[in-house]
């Protein structure tokens, strides 16, 4: 019996010693037994990794506050309600499912045929040659009825005016294309002068015109939101705070495209004409200096 008690005491002392060593190491104190050579190394996982791989799982406290609904805010929506999925409540980020139809997507791509050069094998080499993995072209409402129809649909679904919005920008990507952190709000002097009449970029509507097998996610690292490209879906978010300042939380990145091709389109909505549509809350007013 005494031998068992002694063995237990030895085990307890050994475990206690190991625990003390680990805690000292975690607190940054060097271990005196080896001359203070041990140091604490903090490993911090890059938040981009899980978001770009599409494996990030939001905590239950956040996921439970998100929901989907049918938007019937106007007469047109009663006939064809919008399928809306909230990805973030504050700041607001949402998906409009089945926003663009296949026929409209084909027409938008056809309008850019003279401008886009897709990669392919050349005569002098068996390797594919990439002309450029990121190409864009813009379309005005007057260029084709489908462009005008999309603009009117944006106004109905978001409740915002597109009178001062920028032209629709269609974007074609090939393997390897990516985009580092960006905020659609105006921050360059030349852009501020260019859009002096229209004001700042209030909101963004991003259309996904093709499905993607691997990569190509649009992510908001600060919000822990990842959007997988899904043909026909549109993502919507606000770029500004209620004070009119650019919201740094809305910085987004586009993960590297690993295969296939990717087609998207973007509509940037400005503040001019939306003063009474996007009201400011009293608590968001700038604080006076005392």
TrEMBL record:
Family annotation (InterPro entries): P4HA-like, Pro_4_hyd_alph
Q: Which Gene3D superfamilies match?
A: q2cbj1_9rhob like domain
Q: Which SMART domains match?
A: P4Hc
Mention one GO molecular function.
procollagen-proline 4-dioxygenase activity
Q: Which cofactor does it need?
A: L-ascorbate
Cellular compartments per GO CC? endoplasmic reticulum
| Domain Prolyl 4-hydroxylase alpha subunit span(s) in chain numbering | 91-270
Domain of life per record:
Eukaryota
What keywords appear on the UniProt entry?
Dioxygenase, Iron, Metal-binding, Oxidoreductase, Signal, Vitamin C
Q: Which residues form the signal peptide?
A: 1-20
- Which PANTHER family did the record assign? PROLYL 4-HYDROXYLASE ALPHA SUBUNIT, PROLYL 4-HYDROXYLASE SUBUNIT ALPHA-2
What is the name attached to this protein's record? Prolyl 4-hydroxylase alpha subunit domain-containing protein
């Amino acid at each position: 019996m005494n031998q068992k008690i002694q063995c237990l005491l030895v085990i307890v002392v050994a475990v206690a010693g190991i625990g003390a060593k680990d805690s000292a190491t975690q607190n940054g104190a060097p271990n005196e037994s080896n001359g203070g050579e041990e140091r604490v190394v903090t490993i911090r996982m890059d938040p981009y990794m899980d978001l770009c791989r599409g494996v990030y799982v939001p905590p239950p406290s956040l996921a439970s506050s998100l929901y989907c609904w049918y938007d019937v805010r106007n007469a047109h929506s009663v006939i064809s309600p919008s399928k809306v999925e909230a990805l973030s409540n504050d700041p607001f980020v949402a998906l409009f499912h089945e926003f663009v139809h296949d026929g409209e997507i084909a027409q938008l791509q056809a309008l850019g045929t003279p401008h886009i050069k897709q990669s392919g094998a050349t005569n002098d080499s068996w390797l594919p040659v990439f002309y450029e993995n990121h190409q864009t072209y813009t379309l005005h409402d007057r260029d084709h009825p489908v462009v005008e129809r999309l603009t009117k649909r944006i106004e109905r679904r978001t409740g915002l005016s597109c009178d001062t919005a920028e032209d629709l920008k269609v974007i074609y990507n090939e393997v390897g294309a990516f985009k580092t952190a960006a905020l659609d709000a105006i921050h360059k002097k030349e852009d501020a002068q260019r859009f002096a009449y229209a004001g700042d970029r209030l909101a963004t509507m991003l259309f996904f015109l093709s499905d993607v097998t691997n990569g190509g996610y649009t992510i908001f690292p600060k919000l822990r939101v990842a959007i997988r490209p899904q043909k026909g879906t549109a993502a919507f978010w606000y770029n500004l705070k209620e004070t009119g300042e650019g919201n740094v939380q809305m910085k987004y990145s586009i993960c590297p495209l690993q295969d296939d091709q990717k087609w998207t389109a973007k509509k940037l909505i400005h503040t001019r004409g939306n003063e009474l549509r996007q009201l400011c809350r009293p608590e968001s007013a700038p604080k006076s200096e005392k």
